[in-house]
Prior knowledge:
This protein is mainly α and 347 residues long. The chain is 77% helix and 1% strand. The chain is built from 14 helices and two strands. The chain has a two-stranded antiparallel sheet with strand order 1-2. Helix 3 (61-96) crosses helix 13, helix 4 runs antiparallel to helix 5 and helix 12 crosses helix 13 (292-316). It is globular and about 65 Å long. It starts with a helix and ends with a helix. 42% of the residues are buried.
Amino acid sequence: MKTTKNESKRKFWMKMGLMLILLLLSIPLCALWGSADVSYGQTAQFLLSQIVPFFEYEVPNWIRSVIWELRIPRILLGIAVGGGLSICGVAMQALTRNVLAEPYILGVSSGASAMAVFALMFGGTSWLASLGVSGCAFLGALASLLLVYTLSISKGSSSSERLLLSGIAVSMVLNALTQFFIQVAPNSNNVKSALYWMMGSLASARWNNVMLPVGVSLLGCVVLYVLGKSMNLMSQGDESATTMGVNVPRMRKALLVIVSMITGVLVSASGCIGFVGLMIPHIVRMLFGADHRRVIPASFLMGAMFLVWMDVGARVVLAPSEMSIGILTAFCGGPFFVWLLRHRKRA
């Protein structure tokens, strides 16, 4: 039995290593695509010159600007957002014991988006300026998640159907509130950029603003991995988790804060990108099982790869123009959501 467990663990970490290698290989490949034509040889040699101390390669300044100042930060933001939203989906599904839960469907992204847009449009020199867009997005995510969870509780329990319906209702109200903020915005110059930002984009990624989402996503992944055993027990029910020594109310509060923090920071950096937290955890569970200590790191890597390649598609489909990445993820996530509902109904 012990040998079987060790072999299973070894195979899992081998798969994780393969996924990490694929993610690292995706960075130079994704840096190739865009409106500016840069060859793979130029990209590879330039990246080697930046990473390897004794490798020198002279490139024109415009290639340096395109690859290092624009595309690499964008890829890093895609890794942070894709991985972060995926592990948020895992945490929310464990928190609610509902496989349909994820930040977009349950209104967490909408709450973060509404507060972020409000801060952008009306922040100015008020108290919102001291919080920043990321701080306001975190407050909006936390408030919306608490509201959805509170509305779904009836007679001391929360069912999957009530949670889903509460999330859809709160999300619709918050989306309408966001549109209202844009409609009455005092500065019309920010309206177009806000609308584009609401549909999701990684175009604003620069070295001076990409490190916060990357750090928050990695830290969130580590924290959730540590909490993986408790999340396994919570998935079996509150009574079983309490019997096994889990402080369920404290665990719920911790997951609420962690998910809100990650979602708020990521939404403030990239806008609303939906369905990543719904699709990736389910695909990972099909491949690796339901143990959260495996699902969380695998979801981070797979979600990161998924979103960086979705961003490539957003840059290429309408080139030289750019499509919002949220449109592509919705094209993938909508049919997946329908399939999941039908599959649950048959089950």
